[in-house]
Amino acid sequence: MARDHGGNLDAAVARFGAGDWIDLSTGINRRPWPVPAVTASAWRALPTAEAEAGLIRSAAAWFGCDPAQVLPVAGASAAIQLLPRLLPGRRAAVLTPSYNEHAASLTAAGWQVSPAADSAAMAGADLAVVVNPNNPDGREWTPAALIALARQVGWLVVDESFADPRPDLSLAPDLPANAVVLRSFGKFWGLAGLRLGFVIAAPDLLERLREAAGPWSVNGPALQIATQAMADRDWADQTVLYHSEASLYLEQLASRAGWQPLGGTHLFRLYDTPDAGAAQDRLARAHLWTRRFPYSDRWLRLGIPGSPQEWDRLAAALRA
């Protein structure tokens, strides 16, 4: 199964030339949390249980759940690869369109995967996957709706990679026994290079995941940086406010260009364009990289610019 992704900036450079590129293809926060100096011990020594426990406490406070339900992993993508090999059953339903890695990983593990247009079409599946808010269109499901869905399936996996600005959507504080929540650290905090994510689930499943992932799956600098970042509520509040306002401004720019808004999250917006390929190429000639989707020749997704200079370049390219 095809596994296309944003962030393929090498392809843009190869086609449109090197230069000062602004990568809006990923939905990763372009105003990252400011990383302080990392201690020498975090670089030199293997991660300690104490360091991991500190991150788990910080993350659990952010998610609003019991620390015993939290496991750090090497990116949410690591859990997406491991879970299909650990959960029982063979019939999976994946809410579609959505992040394509879920269906691809399930298929690679031997599951029979059925696309589902809504939660009603997922009833009876051994495993159901919902991305909330959804990528790329930003569709949302309340915790009550997800709890109801969990009663109708064997296992429910909820990918909350873009949910940090929306705690009201999170299933973590009231997690059903057969539900698994995935969270990404790199997107909201803008530090994707740390390759850090979290699984929120029952402790017995977390122990099986820990064994499958192997020892020291999360590096020492990631543990130290994320522990501090997730406790910085002032930065988080300011970041949510910035992206709330910036999303509205991006809608204005896109509307002036003749694009129709289709939804999105705090970190990206999706648009219906007359020709997504032509629109992407036009922006790429200004060294602005965006995201297309193989199943639509009209959809184009843009992340949120991170500075006045980036906004000026995007506005100029959209006017051209």
UniProtKB/TrEMBL annotation:
Pathway, per record: Cofactor biosynthesis; adenosylcobalamin biosynthesis
Catalytic activity: O-phospho-L-threonine + H(+) = (R)-1-aminopropan-2-yl phosphate + CO2
Residue span(s) of domain Aminotransferase class I/classII large: 47-318
Cross-referenced Pfam families: Aminotran_1_2 (PF00155)
Keyword Ubl conjugation set for record: no
EC number: 4.1.1.81
Cited InterPro entries: Aminotransferase_I/II_large, CobD, NHTrfase_class1_PyrdxlP-BS, PyrdxlP-dep_Trfase, PyrdxlP-dep_Trfase_major, PyrdxlP-dep_Trfase_small
SUPFAM superfamilies xref list: PLP-dependent transferases
Cofactor: pyridoxal 5'-phosphate
Superkingdom, taxonomy of origin: Bacteria
Keyword Lyase included in the entry's annotation: yes
Gene3D superfamilies per the UniProt record, alphabetical: Aspartate Aminotransferase, domain 1 (3.90.1150.10), Type I PLP-dependent aspartate aminotransferase-like (Major domain) (3.40.640.10)
GO molecular function, one term: threonine-phosphate decarboxylase activity
UniProt keyword annotations, A-Z: Cobalamin biosynthesis, Lyase, Pyridoxal phosphate
Alphabetized PANTHER family for the sequence: HISTIDINOL-PHOSPHATE AMINOTRANSFERASE-RELATED, THREONINE-PHOSPHATE DECARBOXYLASE
Known role: Decarboxylates L-threonine-O-3-phosphate to yield (R)-1-amino-2-propanol O-2-phosphate, the precursor for the linkage between the nucleotide loop and the corrin ring in cobalamin.
The protein's name: threonine-phosphate decarboxylase
Organism: Paracoccus nototheniae
